[in-house]
Queue: 2 jobs
Job 1
Amino acid sequence: MDSSYDQFLRHFVRDDKRLFNYIYSLLPHTADAEDVFQRTSLILWKKFDQFDAREDFLSWACGVAFYEVRNFLRVSSRQRLRFNDELLAGLAAERIASLEGHDERLAALARCVAKLSADDRGLVNGVYGGGATIKELADEMGRAAQTLYNRLAMIRRRLLECIERNLHAEGQTP
Amino acid sequence: MSDGSLERDWTRLLDAMLDGTITAEEHAQLERALASEPDLRRTYFRYVDLHLGLRALHGGQNDAEFLRRLDAGPRATAGSAKWWLYAAAAVVTIAATGTALTMLRGSSDRIVSPPPAARLAQHAGAKFYGLDGPQPVGSPMNVGQQYVLTDGSIHLAFTSGAEAIITAPAVFEIGGPMRLAVALGKCSVHAEGEAEGFLVETPRTQVIDRGTRFSVEVGEAGDALVQVSEGKTEVFPRAGVDPSYEELTSGMARVFPSVPGAASSAIPFDADRFTSRLPDRIVTYRTTKGPRGGAVALIDVTVQRGGRTSTYAFEELIGARLTHFKGAESRFHMTTHWGERDPYLQGAERAELLAEPNLNNAIINPGGSRSPLTSHPIMNDPELTNPVNTAGFAVRFDHPVVNGPGPDVVLFELQVVVHPEAGDFFHVSPVLFEPGLRSHTITRYDINMFSPEAVALDGFRLYLFDRKLGSLDALEQAEHNGGPEHIVPGRLLAVGIDLSDLGFAPGATARELFFQDVLDDLNYVDPVLIVGLPAGDAGGN
């Protein structure tokens, strides 16, 4: 195994989650984001010999990802609601900085999820872990789908507030 | 944002976008707002991080996930970039844990997984958030994966020899054979000999064991309470380069605040903070298998009583017979194995179903009460019009059951898979309220639907009676619909009942008990077997 391969993997494994978050922010649809993530990953490896080790890997990777997002939107025939080019550029410019503290936020999220009520955890588990749609969950529970959407929205807000409190208490800058 | 209502409107649109329900018009509104409002863009990024973070907690892609997928065997062709990237990432992760492995590229790629740093040695009603299915005893714990324990407690055995008991709610990560990171919750660690030097990391501290027993409790703000029960520990700040540490020895307890640089403070030692073992409970059971592969008859049950684990064969258990029954509003009151019929047709008593070893045979849906009994139940047979019988059922044990340490009685419940995972809660009462005796409410099963120990039943017929049942006489005489086979499968839950919880003194005996559903929902307790545990040294280890 050659050393450039080792180096690439060390960078990639450290930043892959943040890279995916960056792509998803520009292309907020899971399948599309995964598509672009896969292409970006290949290109990053192929072009790794052009990467300057003095540079920040994530910034470089996001730069590649941005153009892949643009390419995807240009050639994809999928009918989706998508951001215009001007907004894409604006989001891209600000997103990398906002990814700082990602791991701390994820740890805080885990702590906050553990504090949810059993019912709320059950809903979140069903939506994010069960593979069921809200409509399917609603049918199974005998509730209106909108009721579950509203509840999920409330849970998200609570989790965000909890994360901020956690990070503030730890002295992290939100 | 100019005011809270506007903020709520925009977050409503953000929710709609993440949920995939946003309309074209709403998307255009959101697009314009994102372009002009920096605050909204920051909020949008937070929403995305939250959304993807929740996915990640449910086994989304991370290094540990790569390892787990590779353990299952390569699934992609040699041409799949994604597979070899994940495989390569696994190499780095494995190498980072200091374990050697072999990797070959191309279609014959193999990954040799490193031995696990820790295993789940035992659990008591443990439930993990976001994992696919229950974690069986003996499961390896993934290094680098964040675990969220939402219920119960677990006993981890590290390959270094260290052991840790973690109690929910807790968030933790296995760092390696000698390292445990606790972001939230309580853990009690026993590490000595070759495990000396075992490290517990909290958000602000590193606690290094210098032998042998200590506990760490991490609060929601990241503060850590460290107490040493035996031996000593060294507590280092996690951040910074200051090499100084605080040494805690046996009998000492200190709180280390989450604020960087803040001094720790001593607090009174509390021996109860250290958890030396999981609680007494029904650990597991074994059954015979029927033609459809599901459970039929109980072979034995393993119980921890007073910290000691014993296995009791069915023949050693003290049987119990139904002596009273008054049903709930539901008129479904009997099940038999799909290959059997109503015992009444064979001249036998339906009440005997509860005493039979076939776990698909049951007398179910007894009545109940929101509040437990405080005086003896009324159990006339047949039921009188005044006074009417007490809703619920009673059993009489073949021999007196002695109150020993831990559980003394075991109730097995049939629970269909669409009913509450936690099981159906019930009150248990003495039939005779002698001085000092009281009712006790069971609100947790030792083996519930998300326990790996809960087995699927072989299948049963469900009988709908033509009337409400107010007594055993009614149970034996009522007509029913013939008992069509129940489509929804069921699992076998189990819970131990400690006679001490009913006020029985150690060594005192109980001959008859009364049970009532707690009426917390429209599902009622469905007992298939109730047995007493033999006293003393009966049962094998």
Note: The two ends of chain B are 66 Å apart (CA to CA).
Job 2
Amino acid sequence: MNHRASLYWWIGAGVLMLAALVWRFAPLPDASDRLAGVTARPGQRLQEMPFATWETEYFGAARARRWQAMDPVSRVVATVVDGSGNRRAVHDPGFCFRGAGWTVAAEAVLALPHGEARRVTLRRDAEELEAVYWFSDGRRAYASPVRYWVDTTLRRLTLGRSGPEPVLVLLVPARGRTADWAGWLRRWPVFTEL
Amino acid sequence: MNPTNTGRGLGWLALIWCAAWCADLVAAWRFAPYDRLGVVAALGWVAALVVAARASSRLARGWLVAGGLLSFVGVAGELNVAQHGALALMAAAVAGGGSRAWWLLLLAPGWMPVLGWALRSAGPEVVHSLRLLAGVAAAGLAWHWSRAR
């Protein structure tokens, strides 16, 4: 490599690193408006729940809210995470369950107005639990974490022009191991519209 | 300035840049159930990288460019797997390309969290075994390459 060519390589590397930093730290709109718009209908109640200290540290700059969603039929704990400020805070829920010692005994697709969610049946020793999760940008809902990674990466590479930030919505029953998920999703459109 | 040294200096700078953006790996190796023993794979892999890099007098620019582009995607797009992949590609560049670069690329997933995610259905024990195997294999290559210099 001669001197001039070497110089060009160094300049190119410097430009690429600088561009990466500019892109990385460019401010993008987050989904805080969507999280703030979660309200209960008449006859329903939303009780906001605090996060544990380790959860708050884990989320970092990501925004997250958790509620106990109560109506005459059910109680469900709903967690919504907006990874705009820290995308690493949003992991594949299926992977996280396994990491926490759960086995995924069954999976099924649940239809949503704008796409689909995934219902998983989890087992750990004598415990069994169902959970439902999906990613949504307000226009499309899907359960694929790969699609989430592609969408969020593309959003950052296009400086937000590819669309809104998808948020993760995770539901678990507050009592018992299961809930009438299809009925719950119909009664709580505020979550399916996120 | 010796152009060859300048080229290799660029390779090492790029490698350090990529490694800095992979700092999340330390927490993953410590706390993530599927990523334990990733540090073993990383130690063996780094040993192999050091031996390969010291034995090489050239910078493989094809791998450098590929690593640079993937690093941009990883840093700008906030995508961990791209950042980890970029580190592996930069190592291939610094190792001078050739068969040693391919070995480094082959064994790099041993320390990457994406290996645990890809094999999540197999259970953590299988993933741990593969990580250990990758670390031992890399350490073996480091020893073999050091004797072949």
Note: Chain B has eight helices and no strands.
